[in-house]
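Quick question, first post here. What does this chain look like in 3D?
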Amino acid sequence: MFFSKPDSVQHLMIGISEGKITIEEQTTGLKDTKPITLSDIKYDSPALLEAAKSQFHLKKGEHWATGYQFTLSIIDSKPVITVVGIDSENRFSKIYYDAKSGTVIDALHKTPSGGGVFRYTGSINKALIYKSGFAVNGISAGKNPLIAWGDSNPSEFISGIKPFVLITYNNGNSWEFLKIKENIKAAWFNKQDELFFATDKEVWDYSLYKREHRAILSLESSIKSVDVSLNKSIVISTEQYIYESKNDGGSWNKTVIPSPLLSLNIADDGKLVALTEERKLLIKKGTSWERIKTPAIEGEPKYIIPVEDSLIANLSGSLWSIDINKERWTRIPSEEPISRLIKKATKTFAISSSGNPYQIVKEGDSISWKMVKLLKPDSEIISDLLVKDDYLFIASIPDFLWTKLQGVKK
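> Answer (accepted):
Ran it through. Tokens below.
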């Protein structure tokens, strides 16, 4: 909660958790020229909370803002109490009440708009899976099948509410659901078109013929990252350990992480490359980890991807490549800052800060890399992409917009 002193920029921030004051800090902010008088507040938060629960089925917030939240402010010369929580569909919601009369001024919730899978042929795109609010978190392809997974009822701050997995054998002209209820973190095909999934705490191989899965790795703690290479290698990281398989999950080697990790990747030759929470690049040589120094003037690394004998890194928005053997950095020219890197089998992609997709390719037979701009849906937020059979497939997640929240009909 924030309190301000009338006609000054002095503010007081108070944090309350489990009935106790946990934060008390003096700050500065906008000058408040219109104080709220206590006599104008006829309805306080407990009464209005009960009203919000009754009128809009408001529930406690989860994950991002736990419990119910309240604000008191002046809007159009009226004292307004805002009750914040989630609605019956787990949407982030705000109910505005007149603190003097107790009447509802407005009720809003954040609803998803957009999302789906798009297929591009040249400049022509076709929406393959499109339902407003369908969050497609990832796509993966084998020689013939292609799968998409995500959440059919996402909210802005909660994922995995209604997980789905869809499969197509004709490049998206028709789809069918796989009966999988778990939230999928990653999925991939090996060279034999065998399908694998990573869930919160397990890795599966999945029989498309029998439509059933078999756990090949079960863990007590949650999986943080997953990466695979073309030579049957899989690497999994948790908060404390690294699990590595060189035979499609037939057996696993468990080691302790060298440092708290942001990401862990495996090159096609089996080398492990890690990005630590301290933004240090590490490469595993034998049984020891060695640091890879980055160009000091380019800032901290954000993403890394091993490609062939190189390592491609996003250094504060600019792209660089390094020959792993020679440890020599070369800048990759780009039209705009890069925010994400995506690896799909032998292809590497980059997403710019404005949402434009690029493919990173070698320039002829040289060791240099270049960016090739691809197309994208006009207003979609790209979550994943791949190239298959001369098609560009783009998976997208919805944006979340404030819309009217309807009250309970009496």
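The longest strand covers residues 104-113.
Helices lie at 45-56.
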